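Board notes (copied after class):
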Amino acid sequence: MSLNVIIESQLFDTYNQISTNVKAIQKSDKKMEDKKSLMSQLRKQHENQLNNYNKIASSFAHSFLKRYQLNDHVIEAKIGSPTPYGNQPKEYLWSGISINEDKSYSFQYSWVFQKDLLEVTFCFGSGGSSSGKIDATVKEKRVSSMRAIEQLFIKIVMLKENKSIIERLLHQENFVLTAEWLNTDNRFPDVDSYLTHISNKTGAKTGITRYFDKHEVLTEDFNLEEKLFHYFDIFFPIWDQLHHDNTRLLHKSTRADRVKIANRNFTKEPPTFKYTMAHLYLGQGIISYLGNNDSRPIPIDELISNQATVLISGDDVKNPKERIQHVGRALQELGQISVEDGYYSLTPQGTEYYLAFDQNKWRLSPQQVQILREYLGEANGEHATNLAKVMNLAISLVEELGTFSLDDFNTVFILAMGLEEEWRTVTQENRSRFMLNWLEELHYVRKSGDQYIFQVDEEVEPLDTLTVSERLSYIKSYIRNKGFHFPDDLIENLYLSLKTKPFVILAGVSGTGKTKLVKLFAEALGALSHNHQFALIPVRPDWSDPSDLLGYKDLSGAFRPGRLAEVLVDASKESNRNKPYFICLDEMNLARVEHYFSDLLSIIETQEWQGDRIVTMPLINKDTLAAEDQPIYGSLSLPENVYLIGTVNMDETTHPFSKKVLDRANTIEFNYINLEQFPDQAGARDETATAQASNAFLRSEYLQLIDAYGEYQELAKKVTSKLVKVNGILEQIHSHVGFRIRDAVCFYMIYNERFSLMSEDAAFDLQLLQKILPRVQGSSSSVKRVLLLLMQEALGKALSVNDMMDDASDLYMKWSASEPEEKVKYPLSARKIAFMLRRLEEDGFTSYWLS
């Protein structure tokens, strides 16, 4: 029977009726058991009609297989129907063919009732159960299979003749390249962008898709079967080659083949990995101690007596001599140290390695990683040490495996060393895990959830040929050429604020260009909406918890990511680690920030160095997610290349900020505007192109004051001295600051001096305005005294504070917009304090946030 008979008005009427009833059941206050009962009744009501649709769809699908002689392909035809889980019916008719049983790659034709769209698509997907009921090991196998097919697809489509097929579908047949979910608007402009995306994606379906709307499908001359045959005929050369290579890949993954892979590198006695040292960084203490002592030979007794410095566990080590000897042997086999008659010294390579330390002794710097990688690359032949041989063996195995689990690696690694009989299971797994830790530290693999992924080549940070000042000048030029003007030093201020901490608040009256500034700043750095590096997220007044941003689990247990989570996943991909990502939370204080943003506020404070990267704790508890969601979202954190900028309107309709928020952000004010600024017509005609900047331009270089203190000790002390004086004033109203703000202000001032952006007074003026004054509010005389004392600091001269407690109008009236401002030490802060004093005297209450 023809599939075309299904495509009629009755199909859509049936589903509209089902959808309406399901939504009513979901929103009702009934107990879950009652909802299940209603779902079952609804299913029975439409069961005959739905079964008839399924029968027709299945009949056509099998005839499709017969037409193209796809005897070993998999077929499935379904139409969603109400289920007890509450998130159904599946709002689509689905039928299609798949290359293999896990449906990792399929040609499908489906109707998305939710959007009134027919999709005809060649798509990738994990083939997993959205209900979360699938066994974890089965899911792992399916994901691995999907990954393998994706890599094959990329190689096949990169061929000129195959890429032309995709381009034909795009330009002649009106297909589009879709991402993450087929029925979203997340699309790609060209084949290369799409291939880059799917080489890093996980889980969600993505494909090349042709959309038809409902009215087009219901016309008399629309023939779905004819179109399906036509599209498959065009795509068939790619499909056929993909199927052929996939079949070969499946045969390759047998145990016998893996043994062959493991043993092929060695014709003689294979090397063995007998170290119980979990991480390479455990040897950093010995190398650091040797380097700090003029590279003279050090007796082991001296190392033992300094074990608190030499060993990361310090005095807790029960057998320090054995530990030092054990770690020393590894360093010796890696060419870093020599050991003769119990004396330890650095080799020439070890000295180079020592000189490559960064601020944190207990991590490998990028230069140290490169030194060890070069050593392993040169350690070939019989003269290589056992450890170098076994590490190179492991590197070759992970390259073969591509994407793999610990069990996958353990199988081939232990077989390659011939130790499957000698070592018990626990020993085998520990040694395999330790080796993978070493390879991860050396950037040969990266871990994503429970999966390891081989790094083809360690990504090189793009070289930015512009200095910071030149880059900022370019940004300002870009913004002017777009026809916009912002106050002097604003771009420098925004840059320093983001460099200090990746969370900034832009505050001011509506219509002053806060959101536009964020967008233009991001654009000038190459972060655009269409490359997903800029995301505008409007905040809704009803947001009350982090799920509104991060996502939630539906009734079936599947995780539904929020917009923020989607951006974080994209930014976390290895191919994107050097690209800055900007998230603009528009009208951030329409809802209470402490409620929906609480998780992000806490996570920001967990930043720490891990190697040469800044990492945070996970945002989502992995154990609360279903198995198929854990690899993507279970380890989701705040990547070092993501910058959060909130815009807020300062009026009585919005919520105030707590000190928890203010402590973690620089608040940049947009209240003083010049309406007589007009676009530069000559400049506006100059189409300035965006210039992709490396994330290194914005990424923080200091997380704790100790990171910068050695080089900028004098400046840090000077800034802290000023803050101590201000803190003495703030203590009168219990609004004094702590170490978090001290460090942030010091970092801001250090970056400013390093890059020679503003004078020291101008920079501290902005920090006083952005980090201190937002904390001051109230109606008491104590608040007024604090404002007067702060004004005294801002003016840089003494005031008759007691005389002004009754009437300070003579002071603040000088700072009205109609009168010229006197030259003072901190003019921006003085102007804001004058405004706050005026509000306090006239209204009986004042706050930084009142406009």
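Comment from the instructor: The CA atoms of residues 64 and 70 lie 8 Å apart. The radius of gyration is 32 Å.
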